[in-house]
Design goal:
This protein is of the alpha/beta class. It is built from 13 helices and eight strands. A five-stranded parallel sheet has the order 2-3-4-5-6. Strands 1-8-7 form a three-stranded parallel sheet, covered by helices on one side. The radius of gyration is 20 Å and the shape is globular. The two termini are 29 Å apart.
Length: 289
């Protein structure tokens, strides 16, 4: 297997790094088959799909890392992982970073929310002191074994204290050692423009929450022009899948045929690599002869 490109190599390609959000192994496999260069795993979709729970701090590192391990097993692509608030203080952050790096995660982002955290586009968030977050970021940087493990600092201060405070915190987090920035939930194109302009040259992530987020959804090339090297889509797949399942169940309940909305049997065999496993089985059988 060829080596995965590092996150810095992905960002050096001169085009926006588009990051669909996988919520299970199947979605990660489909993202790779669709030709994307990388993907993300966000807490919102993973917690919703794996546990049918809202993203309000109900699931911690052990459960999250188990789900992410399953997802990563289905794809060879580099992955950006949401590690929430690091699941505690500096020592918990160090354990989280060490765990994800050992699993083969390429990049993470960590937020400055006060526990219990919640989705960045929900009301009711609170943030910890900027200095406390900076200490957690320093612990994260110290805990990684390779400088290629990319650490993105996320601030949720825009919703709590306004954009100026979010920008101030982002500067502090860069000085603490963050490789990139994620200022969550700008509320207008003007705010996106200001964020991008303030940190020109710093790898920044724009979070496009389709289906009701607080940030305007812009095309990736437009966001790249504004200064955002990474564009994440945390809800796009899980929202569409939820609706597709609802529609399929309504058809079943009404006795309607499935129609042509879904993949067919042969396609799903291909998606799940049946031919590979049949070959493994055949080689094992032949080796006994």
């Amino acid at each position: 297997m060829p080596a995965k490109p590092t996150w810095k190599e992905l960002l050096a390609r001169g085009e926006p790094l588009i990051l669909p959000c996988a919520y299970d192994a199947l979605s990660a496999r489909l993202i790779e088959r669709a030709g994307f260069a990388a993907y993300s795993v966000g807490g919102y979709a993973l917690v919703g799909a794996r546990h049918a729970l809202p993203d309000i701090g109900l699931v911690a590192f052990g459960e999250m890392s188990a789900g992410i391990r399953d997802i990563m097993a289905a794809s060879s692509l580099p992955v950006l992982v949401d590690c929430d608030d690091g699941y505690g203080d500096a020592k918990n952050v160090a354990r989280t970073i060490a765990g994800y790096e050992a699993m083969g995660v390429s990049a993470i982002f960590m937020e400055d929310q006060r526990a219990p955290k919640r989705c960045g586009h929900m009301a009711g968030k609170e943030v910890i002191d900027a200095d406390a977050m900076a200490a957690k970021l320093r612990a994260a940087v110290d805990a990684r074994r390779s400088a290629d493990f990319f650490i993105i600092a996320r601030t949720d201060a825009r919703a709590v204290h306004g954009l100026d405070e979010a920008l101030r915190r982002a500067e502090i987090y860069l000085k603490a050692g963050a490789d990139g920035l994620f200022i969550e939930a700008p509320q207008s194109i003007d705010e996106l423009t200001q964020v991008g302009r303030t940190f020109q040259g710093v790898p920044q992530l724009a979070n496009m929450v389709e289906g009701g987020g607080r940030t305007p959804v812009l095309p990736p090339q437009e966001l790249y022009r504004l200064g955002f090297a990474m564009v994440a889509y945390p809800t796009s797949l899980i929202f569409r899948v939820a609706r597709a399942i609802e529609n399929a169940l309504a058809d079943l309940k009404a006795g309607r045929p499935a129609g042509k909305d879904g993949v067919d049997f042969e396609t799903f065999k291909d998606i799940t690599s049946l031919a590979h496993w049949a070959e493994v089985e055949q080689r094992a059988a032949n080796s006994k002869k």
